[in-house]
Amino acid sequence: MTSTIRPEISFFILPLLLFMSVACFDASLLYPLFSCLSIIFYNLF
């Protein structure tokens, strides 16, 4: 089967999942996360 997920999306989701597992221990990391997400989305799209 061929993957329907684009490579750039998978490279984005993997670090996101890793960060979310870390954020479970320190919720204060969520604020810079959202800032980084907005920058990444603007660069991708």
Layout of secondary structure:
Layout: H1 7-23, H2 30-44
Protein name: Lipoprotein
Keywords: Membrane, Transmembrane, Transmembrane helix
Transmembrane segments: 12-42
The gross shape turns out to be flat
The average pLDDT score comes to 74
Give the number of DSSP strands: 0
Query: What string gives the helices and strands in order?
Result: HH
Number of helices: 2
Transmembrane segments: 12-42
Protein name: Lipoprotein
Keywords: Membrane, Transmembrane, Transmembrane helix
Account of the protein in words:
By secondary structure, the protein is mostly helical. The protein has one domain (7-44). It contains 2 helices and no strands. The protein has helices at residues 7-23, 30-44.
Features:
mainly alpha, 45 residues
Summarize the structure.
The chain contains two helices and no strands.
